[in-house]
Amino acid sequence: MIQTDILELVMSMSKSERRLFKIATKTYSHKEINLIESLFDIYCKNDDVKKINQKARSKISSSRLNRMHSELYKKLQSFIGDEEIKNEQKYRLYKNIFIARALLKRKLYKQANNIIEKTITEAIEFEIYPVLVEAFSIKQFLQKYIGSLKDGLSIEKSFLLDFSEVIQKNYTYYKNFNIYTQLQSEFAKNGPIRNEDKISEFNKLTENIKIDLQQGFNINKVNLLCLSMLGKLKQDSEIVLETKQNLYQNYLDHPKFIEYNPSEFFLTCYNYAGNLIAANQLENVGEMLEKLEKLAKNKDSLRNKEFFIKGLQLSYYLKNTNYLKSLKYAQDFQLFLQTTDDYIYLNFIAVNIVIAYLINEQYETALESINTVLNRNIKTLRKDCYSLLLTYEIIIYIKLEWLDLVDSKIKSLNRYLKLHYNKTAFEKWLLKFLNRTQKTNFNEACIDAYNSLDALNSDLLSKGILNLSEFKIWFESELKL
User: Fold this and answer.
1) Which of 52, 87, 122 is the last residue before a domain boundary?
2) Distances (CA, A) of 366 to 52, 202, 288, 343, 466
3) Tally of CB atoms within 10 A around 408
4) Alpha helices in 151-284 (DSSP H)
C-alpha cells in the first residue's frame, strides 16, 4: 500500500531532511506545490494511515489524491536517493559506470577506457566490489576492442582471475551484509535472544563467518559487525568487546578509510567506547571521548553526534559513581526524549537517563522522562528497554509512596513479561524483589536483592540484561555502599 510506504519513508526522515524536501518540491507548478506540501505535512503530523487518508480527502479532491500520493512517493524516493549520492563515494563511481556506457554507445572507446581505468583504480583502493564488477565487465569488452585496434592483444589471464576474485568478494560481502542486517533487525526489535532455538539458528547462520586480514578492510568490517551483533543477541559481552576493538583497529590499520568515511569511523569509536564503559574498562574511555569530540567537528550526514557523546559521558560518570556529573548530562536530554526520531539510540539512552535522576533522588523528573518515552507509543522501542522503564516506574512509585498504584503496576509488568518472554533468571529475580517490597521494609528488600545479584552472573543472558539495567549502580547508591 503506497500510503504505508510513504509514511515509513517520512518517519525515517530527520527534521532537517523534511525541511530540505519541502524546498525540493518547488520544481512543481504552483498549484501542485501546495498540494504536495499539504499532503507531506499531513504525513509529518500523523502516524496512522487511516487518519492520513481522512485528512488528505478533506484537503485534496479524490480525483487528484491518488496521483498526488504517487507523485509524493516518487519525489521522496528521488530525494533520499540524491541525499545518499551526495554522501557516498561509491555512488559517484557508479555514475562513472553510466558515463562509460554512454561513451561506448557513441563508440568513443578510448574515452570510455580512460574513465573506467580511473574508476577501477579508486574502487580497488576503497574495495567497492559492486562498482568493480560493473567496471571490470566493461573493461573486459574494451580490452577486446581496444586490444584489436592496437596490436591484437587478447584478454590477459591475470585479468580474468582478478575479475573472478572480485565477483567472489562482492558475493561474500553482500551475503554477510544480509546476515548482519537480519541479526540487527532481530536485536532492534526484541533485544537479547531468550529462545534456545533462535540462538542455534543464528549460530548456524554465522558459522562460516571468519576474520581473515587477507580478505581486505570491507569484508573484515562486515564480518566483525556480524559477530558483534551475534554477541549482543547472545549477551556475550566478551565477544562484543573483542569485535568492537577489532573493528576500531581495522580502521587504524587502514587510515585511508577513516578519511573516506568519517561517519562510520565516528560510530565505530562510539560503539567501542560504549562497550569499554559497559565492561567497566574505564581507563581508555577518556582518550576515546577526546577522539570523538574531534571527529564530531567533521561536517557529514551523521545526526545527533553531540548526543552520542553526551550519552557516553552520562554512562561513564554513572560507572565512575560521579552521580552529580551524570545528572548534568541527563538534563541535557529532556528535549531530545520528546522529539528524537532516532529510536535505536533512544533504546540505549532512556534507561540511563532515568537512573541518573533516580540516583540523585529526582523522582518526579525521572517519572516524567519515563512517561515521555512511553507516551510516544514508539513501536520500535525494544521490549527489554520497555520492561526496564516499567520497573523503574514502580520503584519511583514506591519512593514517592504512591503505594495504592504499586500492586497493579507489578501485576501489569508480570503480564507483559509472560506475554513477550520466557522469563530469565533476571526477570524472576526482579519480580521477586518488587513483590518483596510490598511485604517488608523497602530497605530490607533492597539488601536481600543486592546480596543475590552475583548469582545472576552465571547466566549470560541475565548478566547482559543486568548490565543494561544498571541495577547494581542503583542499589549501591540506594544502600550507600
Assistant:
1) 87
2) 34, 37, 29, 19, 20
3) 10
4) 157-190, 196-205, 217-234, 237-253, 255-260, 262-278
What distance lies between CA 358 and its chain's CA centroid? 27
Q: Residue 149: what pLDDT?
A: 46
Q: Is residue 464 part of a domain?
A: no
Report the C-alpha gap between 439 and 434 in whole angstroms.
9
Residue located via cell numbers 551526495: 86
Beta-carbon count within 10 A of 313 CB: 20
Contact between 291 and 252 under an 8 Å Cβ cutoff? The reply is no
What's the mean pLDDT when you consider all of the chain? 82
Helix axes 129-150, 89-105, angle to 10 degrees: 30
Res 271 pLDDT > 70: yes
- Angle among Cα 176, 182, 185 to the nearest 5 degrees reads 140
Torsion from C-alpha of 179, 185, 191, 194, nearest 10 degrees: -60
Q: Are residues 21 and 60 located together in one domain of the fold?
A: yes
Residue 55 within a domain: yes
Q: Is 41 contained in some domain?
A: yes
First to last CA, the chain: 57
**CA-to-CA distance for 424 and 24, rounded, in angstroms?**
51
The residue behind cell 503496576 is 409
For 118, the domain range is 99-155
pTM: 0.71
